[in-house]
Design brief:
Chain lengths: ~250, ~280
């Protein structure tokens, strides 16, 4: 099996609190992996370990290794800027910049030094089309992104992420602030994007995990209790705790 | 339970109290500005604005004073705005709460509470005498920059802190560096607030007489350069009024100063509002 990301014996601490414990998981290339589990179980911390967003927190400490295409992303020689170009992220709450729709999508290209106007225009159009937003915004690219609906803003954030052509897209509960119709649109989009990108999605919604992902990992108290094919995990879980969670006995 | 006043009546009374506070505040402003304009506008005409003063300002105009005011204000803003905004960016984005930050804040708060005449004395001792810059508009502008600095720093700090952290996260997650994030996302989002701070600081600098009293030299002639002595409007107003030269012209000078500040404030507010609207898509 071809793995995009391999996580080995990962432990994460914030100050003295041990947030993630001995995490071992492999993420398959060009598939969707869901991370489920109750609030505070460490899913979001885990996903933020994969693009080193936790580095922004002073008290963050970790050991173990995270390999992207076989290379340790926590190697001192790794440039975080390059890493985050390869591992994009979509946040829980849509967070477009207070700029025009066009400038939002062009942002990643511009900060990475692209100045060719025709190329930027072409990438912006492609990205918006890929994110299934083009038809809704093509007439108002110069208007502020803040005027879009929540669902449109989230698709814009996805377009912004794919514009820099990452390999992996991390999604941290991307639909939790959205209505059901917008959620459906994002899920359709995830199905489309998985052909090209490796997607890891944190979700509280177990139906969503079954709808969008091939693989699922169940987190509890900072550990991975069980991981494997989504179909199997939801139909015949091996661990009693997984069964209790997916049948709604806690969480 | 026995209440002395029922909640409904208390509600009405308090609403009245707040309404009155608002009205009184507005009235104070209107009365002061109105009084100055009524007393001052009769002497203000194109000739008053464009000609030199005659007999120490007893007659003639205030053209050199307007030019002097513009010079000291521009110098003050050009020095204070980059310093204040830069320090605010440093405090909010590049460091944690530590001794140095506390020192900057303490320094800025102290600066804000120093009486303006003390600034004037410092300006005389430091710029005019110690640095040998002599009486000049440039020295005056520097003193005013120090006066405007605390306001610009404090307002900029608040504006930068008010930019949602999610903007910065979005930029960093796309591979943006700290500086790219500050320059391309945080500052543009904070600019409306920062501009307000700069305008507040600038208005304070523009209307200051005491701070420049010993520094600008009080010359009546049209300044030929920023290193010449000059006499900004507030200082001219002070001299006209205290030396009994011409009270009508003092009011005229005051009216011009007030109108100048009003124009700058209104124009900037309009520009900032349009920018905010465009940025936030409203």
């Amino acid at each position: 099996m071809d793995y995009r990301i391999e996580v080995k014996d990962l432990n994460v601490y914030f100050d003295e609190s041990h947030i993630l414990k001995d995490i071992n998981i492999n993420i398959n290339k060009n598939m969707v992996t869901s991370l489920i589990g109750p609030s505070g179980c460490g899913k979001s911390t885990f996903i933020r370990t994969l693009n080193r967003m936790n580095d922004l927190i002073d008290t963050f400490k970790m050991d173990g290794s995270v390999l992207l295409d076989g290379n340790d992303i926590y190697d001192p020689k790794v440039d975080v800027v390059d890493l985050r170009k390869k591992v994009g992220m979509v946040f829980q709450k849509p967070n477009p910049f207070p700029k025009s729709i066009f400038d939002n999508v062009a942002y990643g290209l511009r900060i990475h030094g692209v100045s060719d106007k025709d190329f930027i225009e072409q990438r912006v159009e492609e990205s918006l089309k890929e994110a299934a937003l083009w038809n809704e915004v093509k007439e108002k690219l110069d208007k502020s992104a803040m005027g879009l609906s929540g669902g449109q803003q989230q698709r814009l954030c996805i377009a912004r992420t794919i514009a820099v052509e990452p390999e992996v897209i991390l999604m941290d509960e991307p639909c939790s602030a959205l209505d059901p119709i917008s959620t459906t649109k994002i899920e359709d989009l995830i199905h489309k994007l998985k052909k090209e990108f490796t997607i890891i999605i944190v979700t509280h919604n177990m139906q969503q995990a079954t709808r969008v992902s091939k693989y699922t990992a169940f987190f509890l108290h900072g550990e991975i209790v069980e991981s494997g094919l989504t179909d199997k995990l939801f139909i015949e879980p091996e661990d009693k705790r997984t069964e209790d969670y997916i049948t709604g006995r806690f969480g | 339970m026995n209440r002395i006043i029922s909640p409904k009546i208390a509600q009405k009374i308090m609403k009245g109290v707040f309404w009155a506070s608002g009205i009184i505040t507005a009235l104070i402003l209107i009365i002061i500005i109105g009084y100055i304009l009524v007393k001052g506008l009769p002497v203000v005409n194109l000739d008053f604005l464009l000609s030199d003063p005659i007999d120490s300002g007893a007659s003639g105009g205030i053209a050199p004073m307007i030019v002097s005011t513009i010079i000291v204000t521009v110098v003050a803003v050009l020095v204070a705005a980059p310093l204040g905004v830069g320090a605010a960016v440093y405090i909010e984005e590049y460091t944690k709460e530590n001794f140095f930050v506390k020192l900057i804040r303490f320094g800025s708060e102290t600066l804000a509470s120093v009486p303006s005449i003390v600034f004037g004395l410092f300006g005389l001792a430091f710029f005019v005498v110690f640095l040998g810059m002599g009486w000049s508009l440039f020295s005056g502008g520097l003193v005013l920059a120090f006066m405007a600095l605390p306001t610009i720093l404090q307002v900029s700090e608040v504006s930068i802190a008010a930019v949602p952290k999610s903007y910065a996260e979005g930029s960093l997650a796309l591979g943006g560096s700290k500086w790219q994030t500050v320059y391309r996302v945080i500052l543009p989002a904070a600019i409306p607030g920062i501009t307000t701070g700069v305008i507040l600081g600038m208005a304070r600098a523009m209307s200051e007489a005491a701070a420049i009293l010993f520094v600008v030299g009080s010359a009546l002639a049209m300044p030929a350069s920023i290193f010449d002595a000059g006499r900004p409007l507030p200082l001219h107003l002070y001299v006209l009024a205290t030396q009994g030269i011409s009270l009508p012209n003092a009011y005229g000078t005051a009216a011009v100063l007030v109108i100048l500040i009003l124009i700058i404030t209104v124009v900037t507010n309009t520009v900032v509002e349009n920018y905010s609207k465009k940025m936030m898509g409203r």
